[in-house]
User: Fold this.
Amino acid sequence: MAATKHAQAIKQDSQDYLATALLQLLATNDLADLTVTQVVKRAGVSRMAFYRNFTTLADVLTAHFDPILTARFDDVLAHVPQKQKLTALTTFFTDLAPTLRLSAERGFEPVIQQIFDHNMVRFYTATMTWNGATAAQQKYWTQFMTAGIYRIWREWLLGGQQESLITIHDLIATFQTATMTALRDAASQSDTTGQ
Assistant:
C-alpha cells in the first residue's frame, strides 16, 4: 500500500510539474508552437513521465483547469447562500479573467470552453425541471444555453467586466427564463394541435 501511495505522489508531482511548465511556456508562446520536448525539459521530467500521464499538451491543461472550474460549479450546485455564492463567483471570475485572456491569446480557449460546457450540462441536468419537454428539446436547449452563457461570460471577462456581476447574473437568468418559457409554449402548442 505504501508503494502505491508513493507512486501516486510521484505521478501527481509529475502532473503538477508539467502543468506549471506548460503554463510558464504559454506566457510567451502559443500552444500550437509548443512541443512535448520543451515542456518536459522545462518541467524536469522525462518524456515517459509525460506520456504515462497525458497524450497531448491540451490534456495537461484539461487536467489542470478541470478541477478548478468544476469546484466552482460544485459550489453553485451545493446551493451555497446567495451572498456567499456571489462573493465566491466574484473572486473566481476575477481570478479567471487572466486565464481566459491567456487562453484566447495563446490558442487553448477550446480547453476552457470544453470544461465549461461539460459543467453547464451537468448543472442543467441536476437543476432543470423539464415539464414535458422532449429529449431533443432538452438536449438542444441545454446546448443553446451553454453556448450563450459561455459567450456572455467571455465577453464580460475579456471586455473588462464593465457591468456588475449581479447585472450579468440577472441577464443570464432572464435569457434562461425566456427561452425555457418559449420552449414550454412550443411544447404545449404541439400537444394541443396533436403534432
